[in-house]
Specification:
The protein is 33% helix and 23% strand. Strands 4, 5, 6, 13, 14, 15, 16, 17 and 18 form a 9-stranded mixed β-sheet that branches. Strands 2-7-3 form a 3-stranded antiparallel β-sheet. A 3-stranded antiparallel β-sheet has the order 9-10-11, with no helix packed on it. Helix 2 crosses helix 10 and helix 8 crosses helix 9. The protein is built from 10 helices and 20 strands. It is globular. By secondary structure, the protein is an alpha+beta fold. The longest helix has 22 residues. The protein folds into 2 domains: 181 residues, FAD/NAD(P)-binding domain, CATH 3.50.50; 103 residues, no CATH class.
């Protein structure tokens, strides 16, 4: 269930093996949330611990995604990416990213000097960088729509899941649908739907809004491809970065602030019951106790464009406040464990005939076709 790119990829994989599938989606369209609000980056596998699900499925998924887009005439642009060490203190972290990337088999990887960085991205500045030429940009919503079209009417939009129960060998949903197997790919609602299926209370989804700005048309030449800073290893977020889009625009962002609703794309989107559910989760309270200073800084910076731009200027110095305008935000479904730790890897559970995807943030879109293979194998197990 769930008609984001992951749910659709799973349904397509199962249908291709001869299964009869139905996709249940609460919205009136596919790709309504994370799939339709992400940065459009097809990741090459730089950051992920070797051997993790993210590392294995991202590398496999990138190749499958490239083939899928080529076969269907969908945009797939290998614009490349640089990860910039802004000062000597970040060189060790850059070296660790390079170690992971090489262990993961990321192709074409190059370590750049400051001069080499300027050859790839003339307006970027740093003491060193890592260049991944095979990192690409795509339109994930278009990919999801193509997958839905392949399913030939199997997607039931406007169908929110409110009840799941076992009845013998079947799984009954909403007292209307009966399945031999059920795969939960519910994104921002994955914890709630997993609990309906009898899965454990944790981890819980904590929604983080990522707010973006966009370069004004006359300043998109500041960026050729993708420019990222060396990320803070304490968080699964990659920091404010520059992302070229397939339509030619360039986004700057995101930050990461607590969303006040699971689908809280705007600051004024507040749902008290959902916010209270987040605040009372013991894992969130432990997370907040550790990182409240960082959270306040992110919230303050998101409210002041000048502070937001100052962060981006640390590796693209020519950027000015007048160069950016607000852009649409996204919401990341970040799973948080009971002990307050942010779940980093993909997390998949199983309760009999029900498979639950409990954590699938970036690079889940890149990895979707490979995750679908993995879940289809799990679904085939008795």
């Amino acid at each position: 269930m769930g008609a984001g790119i992951l749910g659709l990829a799973v349904a397509r994989q199962l249908a291709g093996s001869g299964a009869r599938v139905t996709v249940l989606e609460k919205e009136d369209r596919v790709a309504a949330h994370q799939t339709g609000h992400n940065s459009g980056v097809a990741h090459a596998g730089l950051y992920y611990p070797p051997g993790s699900l993210k590392a294995r499925l991202c590398r496999r998924g990138l190749g499958l995604l490239r083939e899928y887009c080529a076969e269907r005439g969908l945009p797939y642009v290998e614009c490349g990416k640089v990860v910039v060490a802004r000062n000597p203190a970040e060189l060790d972290r850059l070296a660790e990213i390079e170690r992971r990337a090489r262990a993961n088999g990321v192709p074409g990887l190059r370590r750049l000097t400051a001069d080499g960085l300027r050859e790839v991205e003339p307006h970027a500045a740093g003491v060193a960088a890592l260049h991944s030429p095979r990192t690409a940009i795509v339109d994930f919503a278009a990919v999801a729509r193509a997958m839905a079209a392949e399913l030939d009417g199997a997607v039931r939009t406007g169908t929110a899941v409110t009840r799941i129960r076992r009845s013998g060998d079947e799984v009954v949903v909403n007292e209307e649908f009966a399945f031999d197997r059920l795969v939960v790919c519910a994104g921002l609602w994955s914890d709630r739907v997993a609990r309906l299926a009898g899965d454990s209370p944790g981890p819980a989804i904590v929604p983080f809004r990522g707010e973006y700005h966009r370069l004004v048309p006359g300043r998109t030449d500041l960026v050729r491809g993708l420019i990222y800073p060396v990320p803070d290893p304490r968080y699964p977020f990659l920091g404010v970065h520059f992302t070229r889009r397939v339509d030619g625009g360039v986004d700057v962002g995101p930050n990461a602030v607590l969303a006040l609703a699971r689908e809280g794309y705007r600051r004024r989107d507040v749902r008290p019951a959902e916010l209270w559910e987040t605040l009372r989760w013991p894992g969130f309270r432990r997370l907040a106790a550790r990182h409240w200073r960082t959270g306040l800084r992110e919230m303050y910076g998101s409210a002041v464009r000048r502070a937001f731009v100052a962060e981006a200027r640390s590796f693209v110095p020519e950027l000015r406040v007048a160069d950016v305008t607000p852009a649409p935000a996204g919401v990341r479904a970040q799973a948080v464990d009971l002990d307050g730790s942010l779940v980093d890897d993909f997390r998949i559970g199983r309760i009999g005939p029900v498979i639950t995807v409990r954590n699938a943030p970036s690079p889940a879109a890149t990895s979707s076709l490979a995750i679908a293979e993995h879940l289809a194998e799990q679904a085939a197990l008795d």
